[in-house]
Every structure is written in C-alpha cells, then in structure tokens.
Amino acid sequence: MLGPSNDSATLGAMDDHGREQPLPPRRVAVLPSYLVGQVAVRAGRLVGDALGEDGMRRHHFAVLASLDEHGPSSQAQLGRRLSIDRSDMHAVLRDLEDGNLVARGPDANDRRRNVVAITPAGTRMLARLDERVGEAQRRLLAPLSARERRELSTLLRRLVESG
C-alpha cells in the first residue's frame, strides 16, 4: 500500500506568474537535456511575450530579420532558410503585408515567383523588436555574470554546431 504523498517535496521554483511549479524526479531534473529544455521554454515565453507587445510572433520577427540581413527573397527561399512550412509562410507574409512591413511582387527574372522585401516600416518595426528581444535575453540571463553569459553562449553555439 502506498503512503500519503509528500506534496512539499514535489514543488519547486516559482514560475513567471508567482505559481509554484512541480519538480520532476531528481534523476530527470539533473539531466542537461531536461535543463536545456526548461530554459528553452522560459526563453520562448519571454521572447513571445516581448514580441506580442507589438502584435508580432517569432515567425514575424524571423522573416523581418532575414529580409533585413539577406535582402529580398522568394517566399520559397524564406521558407527554406527559416524552416517555415509553405502554408505557414503564406500566413506570416500576409500578416506582415497587412501591416505594411513587407511588400511582395513578381521576380523580375522569373515572373512565376514572388519576391518579398522589407519596407521602411518593417525596418522600423524590426528595430523595435530587436530592442524587445534584447530585453527578453537580458531577463533570461539576469542570474549570470557577463563572463558566464559569454561562456554559456559559446557552449550552446558549440552544441548547436555539432548537431
């Protein structure tokens, strides 16, 4: 027969809304893969909330950043570069076009393709989003020193590049 549960041993840190979160079993909680996943969830929430202040989502930010960095691209190129499904890309571009943040037009070299370019309004929005995402990064990494932040970025980059 099982004894009474010990709820105090299964509760852990507070979430962003002041609620205590249950802890996984210790053998799970110490796994680097679990820890990275938990950080990713928190990072995603912080960035999502920051972008949401301007009515944007991560895909919107990624498309604007890609167009700013790489210049005008076809919808297909954007989708491949950002790993965004074709139908999702269409919806993201429609949202951005409705906000006058991107413009779509026929490719001068191949009229069957559309080329997407960032607009001046899109460039201004991207600058605002960069600030918001930067603040989300600062909030995420606040417990770390500057040296620890650099070291973490180096280690994470190495893990990403190895896979």
- What fraction, in percent, of the residue positions are helical? 55-70%
How does CATH name the architecture of the domain at 32-131?
Orthogonal Bundle
Number of helices: 7
Average pLDDT level: 90
Task: Give the overall shape.
Answer: elongated
Q: Count the strands?
A: 5
Task: Please tell me how large the radius of gyration is.
Answer: 21 Å
What low-confidence regions span 5 or more consecutive residues with pLDDT below 50? 7-11
Q: Can you identify the CATH class of the domain at 32-131?
A: Mainly Alpha
Largest sheet: 3 strands, antiparallel
SSE succession: EEHHHEHHEEHH
First-last Cα distance: 46 Å
Percent strand: 5-15%
Question: Strand order of the main beta sheet, please?
Answer: 3-5-4
Per CATH, the superfamily of the domain at 32-131 is: Winged helix-like DNA-binding domain superfamily/Winged helix DNA-binding domain
Secondary structure category: mainly alpha
Descriptive overview:
The strands form 2 sheets. A 3-stranded antiparallel β-sheet has the order 3-5-4. The protein has a two-stranded antiparallel sheet with strand order 1-2. It has a domain at 32-131: Winged helix-like DNA-binding domain superfamily/Winged helix DNA-binding domain (Arc Repressor Mutant, subunit A). Helix 3 packs across helix 6. The chain is built from 7 helices and 5 strands, in the order E-E-H-H-H-E-H-H-E-E-H-H. The protein is 60% helix and 12% strand. Strand 1 and strand 2 form a beta hairpin. It has 163 residues and is mainly α. The longest helix is centred in the C-terminal third of the chain and has 22 residues, at 120-141. The chain starts with 10 loop residues before the first strand and ends with a helix.
